[in-house]
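Attaching the record inline, Q. Sequence:
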Amino acid sequence: MNIFRKFIPVYALAGALLFNFSLIAQTLPSVHPDAPKNWHTLDLKTDGYYGISLNSAYQFVKGKKSKTVLIATIDSGIDTAQKDLKSILWVNTKEIPGNGIDDDHNGYVDDIHGWDFLGGPGGKCDFNETTEEVREYNRLKVKYANVSTATPGNEKEYAYWLNVKATYDETIAKSSAELPQVQQFMNVLMATSGYIKKSLKLNADATFTQADLNKITTENDTISQSKTVWNSVFQEEGPTNDNGKILKDLSEYMVKINNDVNPDLSARKTIVGDDPNVWDGKPYGSNLLKFADASHGTGVAGLIGAVNNNGYGINGVADNVRIMSIKAVPNGDEYDKDIANAIRYAVDNGAKVINMSFGKKLSPHKEWVDEAFKYAAAKDVLLVQAAGNDNQDVDAKPQFPNDTFLDGSSTDANNVISVGASASVPDENLAATFSNYGKKNVDVFAPGVKVTSLDMDSEFNTADGTSFASPITAGIAALLLEYYPDLSAKQLKQVILASATPLTGTMVLKPGSKTEKVDFASLSKTGGIVNAYKAMQLASKLKGERKK
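Structure, as predicted:
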């Protein structure tokens, strides 16, 4: 989640008044009361929140036996020791753990719970990367930076270069402008955090939450204003977050945009060792899945299948799954080669559903990813992907990966679902302000605003993003397969889309706009929000088409 996006206006206004806390507090945005941390599972009619009606779905199949479903997450890795996930991790029984031998001869040594396509020798990992446009600009600039027209035979690549350069220029301008503001934002939060800790008599390495702020009764102006700043930040970021988590998220974002402005273009070769622009079939990576950036992947996995009703954490959407973790998404843009290999790895190892909570603006080797999408379709595997968080119309400006294939064989694959993000209450803010949309290329919306899930090291996190709408939808797909295992990937997509009732006539703010309103039904193909109960009802009426 891009925490900074919400506060750019605040700290742009603050300008040189770095420590003018009164001005900052006055300009922080107003927020709505927090929904329950499990709002995404609730029912609008029964509970007043636009969740997925999960309890009714379970009531519908009460007494019916379920079958374990294997679902893969292509993400930033996972905390394999997380209490709510440890018992549901996929285990490759064909491998002998820790013996350094590829026992199952699949090309991956000791892949017990999945694989890390960003890993390298010595326990290293290329988890901080830059954007694809920065990588491509630097790859092509020697050839085209001083060229004004295409040479015969190079017309296609030259046109691609022009697109790369335009995207690069936009990204660099944005990141260059944001970087000093993010640093300023960090300085303010660090300074106010120090005052809060001092007032609470906390150690320097301790953390505090919104509840802790209520213990502060001092009338000291600096501490009072610091409290106001952090209250507003917590209201935006959710009650389960602490200041340490928020500062960590902001630090990661600062690293990300700094990697655009000051890219390390040698990290991939130095750490991983392979050439991401060559499809050679050679194995690379490691079996280590937990690194400092595994928070996102852990949260995604939790939404799908965190152990239910164990008195800890959250309840996952699906209650009988095994999760295969594939690390291929860095803090920055993923490589096409890694994504194509990750999909193939998941399919070859038996996954029936794959969640893909990532995306980027360019895809230099889209044909590799297209072939992986087709491979999944041929093996009857459903792909569920996040629509993206740039509040843009992806019908007009595509996000990658997507199922509009370069060879023209598909403009809407039967095994791919693209998911936008919705909020908890059906008012004008129902469509998340950050969510991408598109009547043709976004299939459906799902809860993605202030969604609470697991985090690393037994922690929890409340965050925004289509990254979380996607696994909620993938969780529904897995839940359907638990009870109706003969449904094909095509049928799963049909059921999930058909059960999302179009919200025709519900006027909402267009994502990215504070004034323009549109019909919610115009933002996606279905015009609706996923519903587990309605999907379960439809699934029960179908004759399964999955090949044995």
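The two ends are 40 Å apart (CA to CA). The first helix runs from residue 3 to 14.

More tomorrow.
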